[in-house]
Amino acid sequence: MLKFPSDKIRKTAQRVRNNAKLIPNIDYKSVMKYALETSRSAQMTIDAGELNLTNYHSLDTKQLKVLIYGNVNLNLLDGSAVWATSVARMLSVGENIQTDLLLKTHVHNDRLLKPLYELDNVQIIDPFAEKHREQLGTARWYKRKDISPGYAPTVIQHCFNEKDYDFCIVRGYPVIKALLKHPHLMKKMWVYLTDFPHSMEEFSVQEFEDLQSVLLHCNRFLCQTEEMREFLIELFPFAKDKVYVLNPMIPMNEELKPTFKISNQPSLVYAGKFADLWMSQELLELFPTIRQRLPKITFNIAGDKFNDSKVNENFKEDVTQLLEITPGVKWIGGVSREESQKLILESDIGISYRSHELDDSLELSTKVLEYAILGKPVIFNKSDMHTRLFGDDYPLYANSDEEVVANILLAVENPEIYEMAAKRMFEVAKRFTFESMYVQLSDKLWNEKKIPLFYMTPREVREQIRFYKSRLAVLSQEYLFLINRLGNDESKIEMDEAIMNAAHKVDNSESYEDLDMYMKDVIFLSEEVSRLTKALREKHMTDGTGGLHE
């Protein structure tokens, strides 16, 4: 690796420091440190000590501050409540990320929050606490201990006033629609949504316009799967760069070791909410049929949230009765995630059978992953997304009651099929742990610490453009020098044209777009200089002409 003489390091560091003064709120010491480190490593060569231009706007970062808010009740055990705490746990993987979870309702059962109490960089914000009474205590929602969607922007703004967050991750369409009436807040929102139509044919005009408005005005849009992202980009191409994937996330407990073996007294397990599309009542009514074939099998169930039914006004009462009186069913009600894991570990086969209406869904069930990470095979619907993740040859897909019964028998009576399915599920689930998800999102999260261009005054924009133009001129000369040394006439012609095009750009532009264009030009040319310098060094090493400097 090339080394620069000490005067080169000093000059580079000084130049970077001077140029950094053009940007507000910059941390000069970090600039100097970065410049010295990059100079010594000489990764960019020639002028390699130059601070990587893409990082100019991020050197003021010491800590990323993130607020999380969901239109969810953390007293109840369901996917949306687990999601909120999972995002907080995922962000806690980053040492320099401070995460605050804002509660929607007063929490009287903190089973889902307990794991967060142990995390130094996660804080729970209770808007009903005494310290918030003066500013929030007169509202009706405050008195009933439940923030309504229409008042959520007020509470979120209050939190931003208390602590200047970099952004807020928010879930819940009613809240997001309320936030659209507050553009200054909406541009700070990382929106997470799953409850929208998953095919173009299902969209009403209003639904399409609502989703388009969200994508236009939010900072970032988080969706659950790659399939969902592709679908959104196909509908709204303008949003391509702001739609990210935030998969369901699960903890990886090293102490809970899966065996991939079925027990002598097999049991099924379900943990989650009870709802029409989740086939809750149908599965309980089907269980006696399963028991006729497997008399010793039991069904372990955890959960205490009942969604309203569109077809049965007595849904909660009917399902509760089935949970309580069906032979072989062991219902333990709502429990913490850790207790749910223990129940899954003690069981044999996970159940995630859904209505055929969800066969084309672009969502991935968190519960499927929770069963899988503990080494349990799962009975679940065959869909395009599931086959992409778990393979077309996974043996326990079920899209009908008959297939549910048949595949439970198949897994119980064939240990080799059980083990194959369990290991397949486990290997896939390892890609969805908190740590894995943080690695996937880390760069995108920290990009929010870049100082947005719209914070810069027109004068600052012009100064930055002049700086980049001067850098472009220097780099162009270095590029031509290297091309001449390498004897590459074709590249020289291409670069001559590029330099000519750059020279025609407006000198006194106040356009952020022009500034962005210059930045990209300089970064591109810096990379080209680095590439050509490496090529020249390799050429000298092979032909014996010596080093770069003769």
From TrEMBL:
Class of the enzyme per the UniProt entry, highest EC level: transferase
One Pfam family it belongs to: Glycos_transf_1
Keyword Ligase: no
InterPro entries given in the database record: Glyco_trans_1 (IPR001296)
Glycosyltransferase in keyword set: yes
Keyword annotations: Glycosyltransferase, Transferase
Ranges of residues in domain Glycosyl transferase family: 261-423
One MF annotation (Gene Ontology) recorded for this entry: glycosyltransferase activity
EC number(s) given by UniProt: 2.4.-.-
Descriptive protein name: Glycosyltransferase family 4 protein
Lineage summary: Bacteria, Bacillati, Bacillota, Bacilli, Bacillales
